[in-house]
Each structure stands twice: as structure tokens, then as C-alpha cells.
Amino acid sequence: SVAALVPKSEIDGDMGASHVGLHARLMSQALRKLSGAISKSNCIVVFINQLRDKIGVIYGSPETTTGGRALKFYASVRIDVRKTEQIKAGTDIVGNHVKCKVVKNKVAPPFKAAEFDILYGLGISKESEIVELGTRFGIVEKSGSWFSYNGEKLGQGKDNCRLVLTENKALAKEIEDKIRVKCKDVKFDGISDDDASDDSE
């Protein structure tokens, strides 16, 4: 976690003491040393970061990441991950619907986006994706809030439909196979509506 990195002088210093630019300077030095070693060892290093707001920004996005600009330049791939809505089971919150956008990519075309559900304790929900893509390709029929497959109702609401597919693995696999066949005939450009990124690094 870049945001959680603490310079030694900040730990040793007093609370409230000013350390302007220290975090960014150390990140720049560390990345210069690490980049060669990472490349030679054929390893991947994953950095996670947090968004902060710039002060006094009138035009453009006020959002920025901590640790200076060095990590943006050295990174091969940068992914912007945002929670869009909560997933509920009754009154309980069981997960989040997440949107990911590739804002920088040195190894493949950038600016592609993906959306998926992350369930607490389980991770990315494959069944939710089956419901979503099945509906998009016309394999799963949707009438109002009801989902059905081959004339048989799966459930009311996406969450109930997901639970049915979780319990019935054979049915989920059958729908998934049909989705894969459909996907072979469809070209995805993966470009989101707001693919104009201010990250040109």
C-alpha cells in the first residue's frame, strides 16, 4: 500500500511536523532501484493506492494519488477500481458492484473497462456475470424483475437468480457454455464511454 508507507523521519519526528514532498521523493528513489531488479527477476509487484483531492482545483478532476508522480511513470499497468453500488441480501450488505478501468497499459491496448460483483468472503461472483452476460446475449430472458431460461423461471431479481445458479452448478455451466459460443462471434472493443483519460504517462 503506497498510502500506508511511512518514512522513518516521519515516525521518529513529532506529530504534526511538516515533511513536504518526502513521501514522493522516497518513492522515486525506491522505484529507480527496484525497477531493474524486478525486470531481471521476472516478477510482478502490485501497488495499491488511495485517491486524494487536490486543493484549489477548479477545472479538471481534483483527484490524485499519493506518493508523487514516479509510480505513474514506472507502472506498466494502472487500473482505476471504484465501487458503484452495494449488493444487498434483504437488509444485509453482502458485497459491492465494482467498475474497473485500465487507465494505463504498456503491454496491451489501454482504456478498457469491466464491471463485476465482489461478494464478501467469496470474491468475484462468476454467477452474477453469467446472469449479466446471459441476459445481454438473449440466452437468459428477463421480463420485469423475473429471469428465466428455456421457459423456466430462475428467480426474481438478479441476486435470487445468482443464488439459483450457485446451487445448480450444472445449469450455470450450461448457460456459461452458450455464452462462450456467443462471445466467439462478437467483437469487443472494450472502450468505455469516458475513455478520454488525463493519464498520458
What report would you give on this structure?
The protein is an alpha+beta fold and 201 residues long. It has a domain at 1-75. Helices cover 33% and strands 27% of the residues. It has six helices and nine strands; from the N terminus they run ααββαββββαβββαα. The chain has a four-stranded antiparallel sheet. A three-stranded antiparallel sheet has the order 7-8-9, with helices on one face. It has a two-stranded antiparallel sheet with strand order 1-2. Strand 8 and strand 9 (152-156) form a beta hairpin. The longest helix is centred in the N-terminal third of the chain and has 20 residues, at 22-41. The protein is elongated, with a radius of gyration of 22 Å.
Quick structural overview:
By secondary structure, the protein is α+β, with helices and mostly antiparallel strands. The protein has helices spanning 8-12, 22-41, 70-74, 126-136, 158-167, 169-184, and strands at 51-53, 63-65, 77-89, 92-105, 113-119, 123-124, 141-143, 146-149, 152-156. Helix 4 (126-136) crosses helix 5 and helix 4 packs across helix 6 (169-184).
Question: What's the helix and strand layout?
Answer:
Blueprint: H1 8-12, H2 22-41, E1 51-53, E2 63-65, H3 70-74, E3 77-89, E4 92-105, E5 113-119, E6 123-124, H4 126-136, E7 141-143, E8 146-149, E9 152-156, H5 158-167, H6 169-184
Helix pairs in contact: 4-5, 4-6
